Amino acid sequence: MAQGNGQSGNGQGGIGTKVSDNLREGMEKTKGAVQGTQLWSSIFRPGSIFRQGYNDSPRNRSYVIMNNVLYHLHPVKVKRHAVKVSYTLCLGGLSFFLFILLTVTGIFLMFFYRPTAAQAWNDIKTLETAVTFGSLVRNMHRWAAHLMVISVFLHMTRVFYHGAYKPPREFNWVIGVILLLLTLLLSFTGYLLPWDQLALWAVTVGTNMGGFTPVFGDEVKFVLLGSREISSDTLLRWYVLHVLFFPFIIVIFMAVHFWRVRKDGGISGPL
Amino acid sequence: MTEVPEHLLRRSRERRKALGLPVEGDDGDDAAPEASAEGGEPAAPAPAPAAPAPAASGGGGGALFEDLSQKTGVPAHLLERSARRRSQLTGEPMPGGGDAGGEVAPAAAAATAVATAPAPIAAGPDGHTHRLLTVVKAGSIQQTKASPVDKVHTWPHLLVFEFTALLAVTAVLTIFSALVRAPLLELADPNLTPNPSKAPWYFLGLQEILTMFHPMVAGVLFPGYGLLALGAAPYLDKNPKNNPRDRKFAVALFTVFIVAAAILAIIGSFFRGPGFNFTYPWADGVFFDL
Hints:
The structure holds two protein chains of two kinds.
Chain A (H helix, E strand, L loop, with lengths): L1 H11 L1 H22 L2 H6 L14 H9 L10 E3 L5 H4 L2 H20 L9 H11 L3 H28 L8 H23 L4 H14 L6 H9 L6 H32 L8
Helix pairs in contact in A: 1-2, 6-8, 7-8, 8-9, 9-10, 9-12
Chain B lengths: L5 H14 L11 H7 L16 H4 L4 H11 L3 H15 L9 H10 L28 H4 L9 E3 H26 L24 H7 L4 H22 L11 H23 L10 H4 L6
C-alpha cells in the first residue's frame, strides 16, 4: 500500500512525493514503536494465539480452506483472474452475504413481531421506539432487502455480459433465474408485514395483477391472500412464507447454485 | 497360515545351511508342502534354494524367443516363461525344444520334485517376484485433457477481498441505516385507498406496462414469458463465444431489456402521481416510498 502511494506521488510531482515519504516514514516509526511494546510482543508471541504459531506455507494455506466448513465452499485454489475484483465485482458473494445479514436481522425482528392485523403495526412502532437498537436493525433489514434485490439483479447482468451462462454453466443460469424470482418473492412477502398503508396497497396492486392469471385467476388470488380480500389471514400466510418457506427453498437452490459453480469448473473466463 | 514372503524363506534356508542347522524341506521335496497347502494347485511353484535362473535352463528355445521378442516387443525371458508355464499346465512340450516343462509338470503334479531338476520358480531372471500382466501403451491411459491453469491460493488471495467487501457493505449499510429511517406509514386501512397506490419498486415497471396493456398481459403474461425467456437464454443462444465483442446481438438484446426495465421502473417510481398520471417530480413532488 505504502509503495503504491509512493508511486502515485512520483507521478504527481515533488510535493506529493515529499508528503508521501513523510507519511511512510511516520508510519514506519509508529509501527516500530507499537511492535516494540511489551503488550504487542506478549499478545503476538509465537504460540500465543495460534498454539503452533502460524507458518505461511502452501500446505497451511490449503489447510485454512480444507479445515473450515464455511471456507470449504471455495476450492483450495482458484484461477488467478477470478481473484480480480473487476471481474466479478463480488456481486454473487455479496448477495449471499446480504442474505445472511437479512437472516440475522430478521431473527432479531421476529422476537418483537406478531403477525396479526391487530398487533403487527403496533409491534413495529414499539420496536422502533422502545427496543434497544430496534430501529437500527429494522432499517438494516429493510435496506439490505432492497440492496439484495439490486445485487442479485446486477450479478445476473454481470454473468450475462461475461457469457458465463453458456455451456457447461447453462443449468446454473436457470438456477440463478429461480434465485432471482425467489429473492423478489422474499422481498414482496416481507413488504406486507409492517401492515401500514404502504404495505397494504402495494400488496393489493401486486395481488390484483396475480388475479388476472388466465383460467384460474380467482383461485390464484385466493391462494395468495388466504381470503377474498387482504386480511389478517393474508398477513399470517405471508409471514410464514417470508420467514420460513421461501428462506428454506432459497437455501436449497443456493446450495445447488454454489455447488454447481464448482462442479462446472469454477468461475468462468477469462474473456 | 501366515504367508511368509518367498525371499525371506529362501534367506532363512540359506542361513540355516550356512550354520549347519537342519533345513526343513531340504530333502528334495521342497515344492511339496507348499503345493499341498495351497489347496491342490498342482503346479504351485516354490522356490528351490539356489535354483538356476530359467534362462540357463532354456536350452535351444532361446533363439526362437529372441525372434518372437523382436516381433512382439515383449521381452524374451517373459515369452519363455509364459511358454514354459503353458507347457506345464497342458503337458505339451515347450516350443523350441525346451525340456523343462515336460519334466517338471508331472513331477510337480506328483508333488515329488527331484532336487536336481530345475524346479518351476516364480522369480524372474534377476530374482524379480512380480509378473508382467499386460503391456498397455502409454497413450491409451495417460490422456491429458486439461491444460495447466494459472491458479492462486484461495487463502489469502480471495478470502481477503471477500472479507474486505463484506466489511465494507456492513459498514455502509449500518451507517445508512443509522441515518435513514425505513418508512412506516399510518396503520393499514382497507377503506382508505392512497392515491397513487404503487407496487414495490421492482414491480413498478410492470405497473407501468399495466397502463398500456390489459392486466392479464401486463401482470401475468409479460413477467411470465420474460422469466421463461431469461431462463431459456443459454439454450437459445448457441454462440459459444464469451467475449461481448464476439456476440453483439445477444449483448444488444440484453442491454435493451435492462435499459427498458430500468426506464419503466424509473417512470413508474418518480414520474407517476395521483391517479397514476404522468407528473414531473420537480414540479409536483415525488410519490414514492421504498
